Amino acid sequence: MMARLGMSGLREELRALTQEFCERYEELHAAAARELRSERPNHTLRATALVHEAYLRLSSSANLEWQDRTHFLALAAKAMRQVLVDYARSRSRAKRGGGREQIALEESSLITKRPVDIAALDQALDRLEALDERQARIVEMRFFAGMTVEEVAQELSISSKTVKRDWAMARAWLKLQIEGGGTGT
Question: In this structure, what are the phi and psi dihedrals at residue 145, rounded to the nearest 5 degrees?
Fold first, then answer.
């Protein structure tokens, strides 16, 4: 990365990311807080830490580019998903096979109000992505970044009606996969 961009290019890229991140910090923090609100009370990952970890992931990405606010939020959603999944996996490993990290999925987020295994959600999202990449991206943007239907529609250049339809289909499919222990069919 350094050889291609040079130090000045890297500094410019990091400066642009930092500026966009600062402008969107409150939105990202609110999305992270919504995400973590349903966690167990003694959960060690906090909204601020989730947002900062997402920033670190974004800042270490080679040639990170975004077109506008919604595209940036979509990239941040993917980074927050990765942070949450890695955190859940490390907690599970630390417990030597103990219970997996659970999250509650609210209506604004995904499927049900009952807690859902974040690792199972990640695996189901990977399977959904293989079947329908757009639906998987919609879930990431709505669930992990808290983007509105209109923001997702703008980011994906599709109608709000299409987002709503794909969101409903993805939620139903994921519910079957997670609650039924599905294998992708």
Answer: -110, -10
